[in-house]
Amino acid sequence: MKKRSGIAGKVYNILFGIILACFFIVIPIRSDIRSTRYTQVPISFSEKWRVGSEPVKRIEQVMAGEHGGTVILEKRLPARLSEKDSLCFESQNSNLSVFIDDKLVYSFRTKENLTGRSTGIVFHEVGIGTSNITKTVKIINSCCYDRQKTGRIMNVYICPPSDYMRLTFRRMLGACIYCILMILFGGLQMLVYRSVPDKDTLPFNIRALGLTSIIAGTWLFIDTNVMQVLTGSIYAWRGMSKVLPFMVGYPLIAFFNSLTVRKRKIYQHISFWMSIFFEIALIGSRYLLNMDMAYSFSLFLIPYIVLVMLIMLIIANDNAHYCRVNGLAIEIRSIYFIIIFVLGCGLLDLIKDFTDQTFTDVQGIYTRAGMVIFVVYMNFKFLKWWTKDHAQIMRERFINHALQYAVSSDSPEHNIKAMLNFMGTELEADRIFIFESQINGTFRGSYEWCRDGLKPESVELIHLTYEGVLDKLYKRYLDNGRKFIVNDIEQLKSTDPYFYDILKNYKIDNLVTGALEINGKFMGICGVSGAPEDKLTDISEIINLISYFLSQLILQREEQKRMFSYNYRDALTGAKNHMAYRMFLENSLDMSKTFGYMRMGIIGLEDVNREQGYDVGDRILIEVSKCLMEIFGSENVYRMNGNEFVCFGFETEESYFDNDVECARRMIERKGINIFVGAAYCANGTTDMEIVFSRVDELMQEDLVH
């Protein structure tokens, strides 16, 4: 029933997912989601420009710095224009003037700012309209700072400005989404840090990780130039893009240091002052040495990233040495490599920029890709910790509740059954069972719980040989890190056919077992079958923790039996003694129900003791006791004094009870022992045991006389 319900749930989830996919994917794609919504299709105008009389393939190839600092670009406008059209383009570190048929229609001059005279990317629009059809557009492009080798124009289109903005958004959409995800991830980490009361329980410094992600995401988002298009600001975002990267090292190293076993604060101090030093050096070179940041940025950022990587390498080696000396596991290798990979991506961007001799804004293609991988990886690690920690909390709560049942009464027997009932209900299992080691080398089923609607399998009647069954199971349990999980019993068909037949016979689909051990000695197993598949691993952990307490309860049960035997059993015969008899009458006998009562005495026992010795008399008592316990059961036979025994019978018919009495008499007399017996059967119970005692005494006297 449970399996069918689980399959139905999976089918519902799949169907629901398909429906959602239709809503979120198919419907938008089949409608106007892919529509550009341009007023008119933008005309690419980046090809076939001229520098003097020399044609150039694309305008992006022309650097003002390579033409003495100033270059003049010309091209004829198309024959079809609309009144809404503008000449839209980007410039990179350029001063420029735009002429149409030698008439100045637009100019742009850089202003001195935090980064120098450079501007980075600037977006321009020059209205043209139908009156300028086939006229020649001329752009005078010049460098904006000293020793510059760049200064170029890019992505030239003829279209309305709104269409150009939309085109730019579409071109940078993927990069923007990645950057926004980084910023959101960082913000989420900061919120989690604020919401967790006990910061020591966190797996690492998530505040530092969140700050790293926010700084890197913001820097790379500025690098997409979307903020420039959106706000029209140039110098604010230009300044931010140059100073932000030097702030990422401090939180990044603080985060990495928190992953180590040996968390040394000296590295955080070094990284903090290193970031401050490079910021001061960058800004100082700008104002003291008049070095434009378009030139100095890569010169400072490359050694900064190299030093960050070097510090992290020192931290990793220091932690590895500490772990080796103290015999601890090193758990940061994978994170170390992923961070090195990200820094390597950033370094690759910088080296590419530097070796190309462009000294312009880093486009951050590799850095952005590396940061996305880093964020995804750390999000996975954090979620893994979060779910693991949540599962640990739930296990601890489960065990705390289970332990309440372990001490719920003075009876270990009752407590074991209460624990199994709680476990079975909470774990949604079909069955829970316990097999215990016996003196003869077998394992006998001792406890069983099954959910409502299932028939108990009477595990107390099942005996398993140790050799060939549980020895293999126990070995596999130890080899698998104290886990034994069988998701599907069919996997045992070829490896453990005998065990497979047992599980198949009792209709067990899956199985989780744990060892019951006392003082390191294997003394039993606890098994859970028919539990939900997604809980099997957690159940294995729970059994490992619970098994200790189950073992202690079994130990207490055996100790209680020994104490009971010592206090309530006759040392010679093994039958219960007079104290146990009185306790049974007062606390356990239900006089409202059917029962039989027999008293028996041995004739001439005193003469045997006097004439043949007490050893012979003791053997007679032992033989009589064995016969009575064989007929009435060891729990129902009491030795009252030197030569008398009392037996209770709980047969459903008086004839059955009388037959047991006669069988006991014949077995004893066959051994040459003379006895006298009195027995009474209470078909409807009794209201007064004294009446029963009196009647049995009379029958005993009559039997003695005859």
Residue-averaged pLDDT: 82
Please state roughly what percent of the residues sit in beta strands, choosing from under 5%, 5-15%, 15-25%, 25-35%, 35-45% or over 45%.
15-25%
What is the molecular shape? elongated
Spans where pLDDT lies below 50 across 5 or more residues: 357-362
N/C terminus separation: 67 Å
Largest sheet features:
6 strands, antiparallel
Q: Based on helices, strands and strand pairing, what is the structural class?
A: alpha+beta
Order of strands in the sheet with most strands: 3-2-4-9-6-7
Total count of strands = 20
Helix content: 40-55%
Topology of helices and strands:
Blueprint: H1 2-30, E1 43-44, E2 47-51, E3 54-58, E4 70-76, E5 86-92, E6 94-100, E7 103-108, E8 121-127, E9 136-143, E10 152-159, H2 161-195, H3 206-223, H4 226-231, H5 235-243, H6 249-258, H7 266-287, H8 293-326, H9 333-355, H10 365-406, H11 412-427, E11 431-437, E12 442-450, E13 463-465, H12 466-479, E14 484-486, H13 497-505, E15 511-518, E16 521-529, H14 536-568, H15 578-588, E17 595-602, H16 605-612, H17 614-632, E18 637-639, E19 644-649, H18 654-670, E20 675-682, H19 689-705
Antiparallel strand pairs: 1-10, 2-3, 2-4, 4-9, 5-8, 5-10, 6-7, 6-9, 11-12, 11-16, 12-13, 14-15, 15-16, 17-19, 17-20, 18-19
